[in-house]
Amino acid sequence: MLKTLDIELTIEGEQIFFSAIGLKDESYQVDGYKLTTCFNDGVLDLTIKRDDGTLMNVEEISYIIETKLPNFSKIVIGSSGREYNKSIYPLNCWFDGGRSYAVGGESNAYPFICFVDQEEQAAFAFGSLGKNIKSEFFIDEPGFSKKVQCLVVYNHRLLFRMIRPGSNCKYGKTTIIREALYIKSKLPNWYMALRDYGNLFKLKNNLVEIQQTAALEPTWCTWTAWNSDDMNHDLIVDNAKAAAELGIKTIIIDDGWFGPGQDTDYDDRKTGDYYPDSKKLPDLKATVKTVQDMGLKLLLWLGGTSLAPGSETIKKIKHLTTVTEDGEYLARGALYQICPACAEGRKHIVDSVIRLMNDYGVDGLKTDMYNLLPERCVSMEHTHDQATMNEGLAKLMEEIWDAVRKIKPDALLELKQDYGNALLAQFGSMIRVSDSPYDPDINLCRGIFVNSTIRPVHNDYLVWNEFEKINHLGIMLIKHIIVGVPTFSVDFSQITDEHKNILHGWLQIYDELKFLQFDAWLQPMTNTLDSWNRHNADIGFTAAVYGARELFIQDCRKQYLFNATNRNSIICCVNKTISGNMTVFSPSHVVLEAHEVTVSNTINVHIPIGGYAVFKMN
Prior knowledge:
The protein is of the alpha+beta class. It has eleven helices and 38 strands. The chain folds into three domains: 4-204, no CATH class; 251-281 and 295-428, Alpha-Beta Barrel (TIM Barrel); 465-482 and 492-618, no CATH class.
């Protein structure tokens, strides 16, 4: 589908332009610079250097791509996956002609873009497999007329650019530029295109997956169960007891344990002063031990880079906070940010991590709010040992991960979607889907994105009340199992015993399936991404969501068939004749029917909305 690829470099103020780059092994010579390319299986490796081999002070590299403009159904920008759904329809991209999409900085994500055709196939996917630097996409055409800013498409072409690094960051000094581009067409769907890109990204960057069994355990968090101003020892312990009875194994004490948190009604937030609030938690170490004695792990929240203006810490280390071209930087929520590109700033954060682990005996941390960092820091009050904010954040996360594991080799560290790409997933136990309380569909949407390249994935914390319908609760729990690890932030004193029993049953199902997250990747069964599967030879699940009409029974001994659609009848499909026992359950785990079945092609199974069937193969 690619028509042309051009490469433009800015080196010491000079523009170097290589045009009509082919997807092949080739050399190109322009004005004393040599570009060498090597193309294999969708990856274009390239090197650029001066003919005399001297040092280059490189400002940026632009990749300019042109192709014919078909009618796309979707455009997926490879952000962290938190916001990709906002620009997924082409007109949202065309409408702001020349609109830029930043990838990196505060959202440490993939420089990847995928154009989806009318059959939901990935018509064209493009991205960088190079080093971790800020990147930006600009869609130039379709765009706007210069005079009246009217949307125009009469050139009938798609013209876009990827700039590395973006936002006035500099590539740096080097004698040779080494980059690699991902360029592929006609993949099954955007999810599998991103999976393919992610696998190559990991291979190119020599990344390994972290696999901790404890990271698969269901988790309960204080965040949305109540306002953090109301947090106290008894509420945490009472909910931990209920959680343990239900099969939940990890507790997170979230923001506000040290004083007024981000959701406070008061102005004197203490973000950055990581000592327990004497009124809420007079003996935090005792609270931690009480929870641990129930057989649970306990994590503490830490917004490592953030400092509230009213904190004591800001008075001591304000010189280590970020400054932009516009002056001192205050992030959303009026929070200063400690500069992670500064070794002294990172040391302050890591020292806090070590103290929390040692003083309170916690099993790990929930790290948060790195997505509030600016694109770059220009402060003259501290020195930078990392060239960009991306590199500084990666270094900080690596140092925190090393610190917690030296204290507890099996420590858990929860990261968040915004900075949870495959590169940074090395420095934590699991990636959590970004905040989506009372919105299980956004949670599923975001969780699917993360699942394309990373495992295990934690859902954002599911919350509901006593008025939730039984079948709706079943649908929400199915969506959680699709994403990965079920996580919750519901006050167990405020839901019914019936809900608790239903939850307990679903968590028992999850317990059977949890190790699949290390054994098998989540797979879409349709290009419309409304049917999902994860299985090995022994056990698995297939789940229908939204308007799906079909489930696909896989070749494994025992399989759960989940119905998270709006219909009570699902067509189950097979690719060979199979026979076995089919047992159908309500969302509350009541057996509705059980019988032997033989399926040669399809069979219509009456699975209630929010319920499931279990198929055991003969």
